[in-house]
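Query structure, 330 C-alpha cells:
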C-alpha cells in the first residue's frame, strides 16, 4: 500500500534528508531507479557549500566532486566555491531533482510498515529514508564568557566586512587560515589564537607558506599554545604561555571546527558507539542503520570523525543504498 501524507496525498518510496552533494547524488540514483522520492533541506541548495568562505578554493580537483556522471568544468585545476554552487545548481536543474528547500526535519519515526518524517511544515510518510546531513551544522563553542556577543562569529563569509578592524581569529585549520589571510589583505589588524604549537597539518599546501611567512614577518600576530578566556566589547582576554593578556578587539572569528547533529540520529533510534567518536551503527555494504529502512550517506557515517569522509569518497554511498532498496522491494 502506498503511504499517505497528512493531507492524504501519496507518500514516497524515499525521503532524503539533506540537499548537499551527497543528498543530490542519492536523488540522481533514485531517479534512475524510478523511485518516488523527495529531498528535504533545511536551508538553500548545497547549504554547507553556500556557507563556506566566499573565496574558498577546494582541496580536490573538479572531477572528484562530480555527481551523476555530469562533468564539472572549472577555470583552474581546483574549483572555487562559486563554481561548485553553479555546478550543483545546474545538475539539480538539468535533472529536475525534486527538492524542498528551507524546510527543517524535526523527527523521523519508524511505524510498522512505513516511516513518518515530521518537518516544520508538513508530515510525510515514506518507505525509506536517507540521512545525508553532513557535519557543518553545529560549531564547536569556545565555552567562555562573552561568546554570545554579536561580535563573535562562528562562520566566516567575506573579508571586506572586517576591513580596518581589529580581528581575532581562533583556530589553525583551513577556514581559520583563510580568514586570517583574507581579512589581513583587506586592511584588518589580525591576531590568531592557536591552541597547538603550529598551524594545522591539514592546511592546504599552497596556503601554508603564505600564513607562516606572514606570521614570521609579524604582519599577522599569532599566539601558539594559547586560548581565549573572556570576550568583552572592545577587548579579549587570552591565556598565553607567558601568562594572561588583554588585547583590543572589534571582532572574534572563532573557526574551531564543526560537528554533526548526532543527537538527531539518537532521537531517531540509531545506535551510537560509546566512545568519543560516537559512530552511528550501519551496515557498510548497504548503509542501512539499525532502524529498518533508515540509511546514512556521506560524512554523517563517521560520527565525530569528520575527517575520514568527503564528497570525493562518499559519492558511492548513493549507489549502495539505492541498490539495497531495490533488492528488498523485488
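Result returned for the query:
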Amino acid at each position: 500500500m502506498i503511504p499517505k501524507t497528512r493531507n492524504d496525498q501519496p507518500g514516497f518510496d524515499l525521503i532524503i534528508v539533506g540537499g548537499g552533494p551527497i543528498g543530490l547524488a542519492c536523488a540522481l540514483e533514485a531517479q534512475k531507479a524510478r523511485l518516488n522520492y523527495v529531498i528535504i533541506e533545511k536551508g538553500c541548495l548545497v547549504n554547507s557549500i553556500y556557507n563556506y568562505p566566499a573565496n574558498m578554493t577546494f582541496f580536490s580537483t573538479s572531477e572528484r566532486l562530480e555527481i551523476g556522471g555530469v562533468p564539472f568544468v572549472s577555470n583552474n585545476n581546483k574549483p572555487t566555491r562559486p563554481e561548485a554552487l553553479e555546478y550543483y545548481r545546474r545538475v539539480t536543474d538539468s535533472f529536475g531533482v525534486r527538492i524542498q528547500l528551507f524546510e527543517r526535519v524535526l523527527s523521523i519515526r519508524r511505524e510498522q510498515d512505513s516511516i513518518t518524517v515530521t518537518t516544520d511544515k508538513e508530515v510525510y510518510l515514506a518507505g525509506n529514508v536517507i540521512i545525508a546531513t553532513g557535519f557543518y551544522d553545529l560549531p564547536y563553542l569556545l565555552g567562555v564568557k562573552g561568546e554570545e556577543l554579536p561580535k563573535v562569529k562562528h562562520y566566516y563569509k567575506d573579508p571586506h566586512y572586517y576591513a580596518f578592524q581589529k580581528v581575532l581569529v581562533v583556530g589553525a585549520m583551513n577556514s581559520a587560515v583563510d580568514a586570517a589571510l583574507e581579512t589581513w589583505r583587506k586592511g584588518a589588524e589580525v591576531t590568531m589564537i592557536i591552541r597547538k604549537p603550529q598551524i594545522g597539518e591539514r592546511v592546504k599546501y599552497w596556503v601554508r607558506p603564505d600564513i607562516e611567512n606572514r606570521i614570521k614577518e609579524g604582519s599577522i600576530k599569532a599566539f601558539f599554545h594559547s586560548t581565549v578566556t573572556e570576550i568583552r566589547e572592545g577587548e579579549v582576554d587570552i591565556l598565553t604561555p607567558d601568562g594572561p593578556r588583554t588585547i583590543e578587539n572589534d571582532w572574534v572569528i572563532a573557526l574551531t571546527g564543526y560537528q554533526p547533529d548526532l543527537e538527531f540520529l539518537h532521537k531517531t533510534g540509531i545506535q551510537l558507539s560509546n566512545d568519543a567518536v560516537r559512530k552511528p551503527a550501519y551496515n557498510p555494504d548497504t548503509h542501512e542503520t539499525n532502524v529498518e529502512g533508515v540509511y546514512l550517506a556521506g560524512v554523517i557515517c563517521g560520527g565525530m570523525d569528520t575527517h575520514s569522509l568527503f564528497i570525493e569518497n562518499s559519492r558511492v554511498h548513493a549507489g549502495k543504498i539505492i541498490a539495497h532498496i531495490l533488492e528488498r522491494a523485488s
